[in-house]
Amino acid sequence: MFTGIVEELGEVTAVEILDDASRFRLRGPVVTQGAQHGDSIAVNGVCLTVVEHEGDEFTADVMAETLDRSSLGALTVGSRVNLERPMAVGERLGGHIVQGHVDGTGAVIERKPSENWEIVKISLPADLSRYVVEKGSITVDGISLTVVDAGPDFFTVSLIPTTLDLTTLGHKQAGDPVNLEVDVIAKYVERLLGARGEQPVALPDTQGSGR
Predict the structure, then answer these.
(1) Exposed (0-12), middle (13-18) or buried (19+): which is 97, by Cβ within 10 Å?
(2) With contact defined as beta carbons under 8 Å apart, do 66 and 85 qualify?
(3) Is the CB of residue 84 less than 8 Å from the CB of residue 2?
(4) Domain ranges within the chain, ordered by starting residue
(5) Residue 194: Cβ within 10 Å count
(6) Beta carbons of 21 and 61 less than 8 angstroms apart
(7) CA nearest 112: which of 103, 123, 122, 120?
(8) Of 25, 23, 21, whose CA–CA distance to 13 is shortest?
(9) In whole angstroms, what is the distance from residue 159 CA to residue 149 CA?
(10) What's the average model confidence in pLDDT over 55-69?
């Protein structure tokens, strides 16, 4: 379980293409502290398992299913990635509940910079739009963010300078892919209501502050 609070910007140092998978070697001095074989580390929001660990680098195998459903297949040597270790029991939940299970991919549509923040518009697969609401949470490349506007095939987020400086979203340009994970609570609610034959109640259009 993760929180969507990125610990550091790592870097892909090697990519090995296998028959039905890929093996990535990644550098991350912070997340590799105390890392052991079998540990989990989120890479751009995808929960991966540490295969080997040496110094400030670790390797992880990514199966075909994950490559097909996420943007990890587009990574090359030198690519920057968001890294986060799992949340320890008893620690503060700074973002929201993030599983590291990517629901789909979107792409940056446009960026609108301002003096103190930047608005980023991101495309949204149609089958995920029902889980995204204004002022709700969404994970973009492993970053816990608050939705500003939610459309049928897009959403926007407002990024503060810290997020721009310390994550991949500070470098993404129009057309670049991003991994998306919607709020797992919304999916459970939908499943439970469906099992009871009930329809979800539409939420009122409210205004509030974002994260």
Answers:
(1) middle
(2) no
(3) yes
(4) 8-84, 104-195
(5) 11
(6) yes
(7) 120
(8) 25
(9) 13
(10) 94
**Sequence-distant (≥ 6) Cβ neighbours of residue 87 within 8 angstroms:** 1, 2, 3, 93
| pLDDT tens figures, 114-151 | 888 899 999 999 999 999 999 999 999 999 999 999 99
Cα 169 to Cα 123: distance, rounded to the nearest angstrom: 14
DSSP state of 160: -
CATH topology (fold) of 104-195: Elongation Factor Tu (Ef-tu); domain 3 (2.40.30)
Alpha helices in 47-201 (DSSP H): 64-69, 161-166, 184-195
Query: Which band of pLDDT confidence, cut at 50, 70 and 90, is reported for residue 86?
Result: very high
Nearest CA among 192, 32, 172 for reference residue 105: 172
Q: What are phi and psi of 103, to 5 degrees?
A: -90, -20
Minimal CA–CA distance to 152: which of 177, 179, 124? 124
8-84, CATH topology level: Elongation Factor Tu (Ef-tu); domain 3 (2.40.30)
Domain 8-84 and domain 104-195 have a common topology: yes
| Beta pairing class for 8-17 and 80-84 | antiparallel
Reference 119, options 145, 96, 98; nearest CA is 145
Three-state SS at 116: coil
The answer to whether 10 touches 28, Cβ cutoff 8 Å, is yes
Torsions phi, psi of 153, nearest 5? -140, 25
